[in-house]
Design brief:
The structure is a single chain. This protein is mostly helical. The protein contains 4 helices and no strands. Helix 3 runs antiparallel to helix 4. The termini are far apart.
Amino acid sequence: MRVMSAGDGYKYLLRTVAAGDGKRSPSTPLTRYYNAVRTRRGMRWGMLAWPTLPIYCFIGTHLTGYLAAGGLGWLNLVVLVIVWDIIKMFLLGPFSVMWLTGACFREFRARRAMRPVVMRAA
């Protein structure tokens, strides 16, 4: 066992969860979700998750108010799922834009490297 820094742990988490090569089965919903989002095609959907944030915040706020007034206890689980979705969508937006920008930059560099070099006579 070795000690990891926070950055190394984060990279390990992204590498194992996103690639599905950790101890979890690749058929779990979370692994399939991360695999879909980390593809070139799936990165485009990250910013579309942001407009749904106010809706989730509105629902979470009203459910929390209902629970504070003595509502049903099982709604705590619904609020927990809503808060988890809010965090996921809040982080997915900027990260997917960064991933997409990086992928576009790598594709641009690869295309530029494939172009033939034309030497001009001086």
